[in-house]
């Protein structure tokens, strides 16, 4: 077995993540289900890719000068990725985040040296939404850029160029379908576009949590939401710049309980400690696999590590307070 190549820069550690066959999901789907291990990125999530792509794009366009500042509104993971990239390149970071995200994300951002600004969670139409707050902060900060991950298509471009290309090579060009949830839409759109460039028959599916409006949009053409979800970083109520023109062939809606079932199984049966977005993605991959049949090979994104949610998903009291099932091993008595 060959060792991974040596890297000339810590930024070269972003991407080229492993791909793993998921046994339980494969058995449930009746075909091969593969997970792209994005938790293996330096910042612990798939968002490292978007962070690096956005920063390099801003540098190339001359918008980000040496010693400058990167401002972004994020559920946390993109901020963590931006802080690490910024540290490696000599920039400051200011991160605006809803105050209902996990304590682990907040502590991580502070530990990385980012300036953290917390705001109450609210609808995108509200002027105080974290995205709008971060834009105003960037405008008011000398030498700053606004990363704008939701509408900055440098986000999906990096997934076209890296994530899709890696999946194609790792699966030897034999991939039947791909699915994941959408927050910014960069991963879903970028991987979808990149795979379709190589094989138009690859089926691209949205897996949407409850409380988001994209399932309805791709099914009926109308943005309508139903229910709620505690999943962080996924779920969208509008067509972002990154989602415009995304080649979505079909769509699934997955509940938090279904996603948590896969989070529990992947931990207990396969030794993977993941966040809820990964569980929702795997549930969608199983649905897609069942549609495509026994010869199918379906890939999805294992977005981030479960260690980022020890105070939420892996805490019995928190789960009970949210009306969610508690993992067997967390139950008292």
UniProtKB/TrEMBL annotation:
Pfam family, one: PALP
Cleaved signal peptide residues: none
Superkingdom of the organism of origin: Bacteria
GO biological process: cysteine biosynthetic process from serine
Listed pathway(s): Amino-acid biosynthesis
Gene3D superfamilies linked: 3.40.50.1100
Cited CDD domains: CBS_like (cd01561)
GO MF term set: transferase activity, transferring alkyl or aryl (other than methyl) groups
Domain Tryptophan synthase beta chain-like PALP: 12-304
Protein's recorded name: Cysteine synthase A
Taxonomic placement: Bacteria, Pseudomonadati, Pseudomonadota, Alphaproteobacteria, Sphingomonadales
């Amino acid at each position: 077995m060959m060792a991974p190549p040596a890297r000339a820069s810590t930024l070269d550690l972003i991407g080229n993540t492993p791909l793993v066959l998921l046994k339980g999901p494969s058995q449930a789907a009746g075909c091969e289900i593969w997970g792209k291990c994005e938790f293996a990125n330096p910042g612990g999530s798939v968002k490292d890719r978007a962070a690096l792509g956005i920063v390099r794009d801003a540098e190339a366009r001359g918008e980000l000068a040496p010693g400058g500042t990167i401002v972004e509104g994020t559920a946390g993971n993109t901020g963590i990725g931006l802080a690490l990239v910024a540290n490696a390149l000599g920039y400051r970071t200011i991160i605006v985040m809803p105050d209902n995200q996990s304590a682990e994300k907040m502590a991580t951002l502070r530990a990385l040296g980012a300036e953290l600004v917390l705001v109450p969670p609210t609808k995108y139409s509200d002027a105080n939404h974290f995205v709008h707050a971060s834009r105003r902060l960037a405008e008011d900060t000398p030498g700053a850029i606004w990363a704008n991950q939701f509408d900055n298509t440098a986000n999906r471009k990096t997934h076209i160029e890296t994530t899709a290309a890696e999946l194609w090579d790792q699966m030897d060009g034999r991939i039947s379908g791909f699915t994941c949830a959408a927050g910014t839409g960069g991963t879903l759109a970028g991987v979808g576009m990149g795979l379709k460039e190589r094989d138009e028959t690859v089926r691209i599916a949205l897996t949407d949590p409850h409380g988001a409006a994209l399932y309805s949009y791709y099914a009926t053409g109308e943005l309508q939401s139903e229910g709620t979800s505690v999943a962080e970083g996924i779920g969208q109520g509008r067509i972002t710049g990154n989602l415009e023109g995304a080649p979505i062939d079909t769509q699934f809606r997955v509940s938090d309980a279904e996603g948590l079932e896969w989070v529990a199984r992947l931990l207990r049966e396969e030794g993977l400690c993941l966040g809820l977005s990964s569980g929702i993605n795997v549930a969608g991959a199983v649905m897609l696999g069942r549609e495509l049949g026994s010869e199918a090979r379906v890939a999805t994104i294992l977005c981030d590590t479960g260690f980022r949610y020890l105070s939420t998903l892996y805490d019995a009291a928190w789960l009970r307070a949210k009306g969610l099932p508690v993992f067997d091993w967390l139950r008292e008595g």
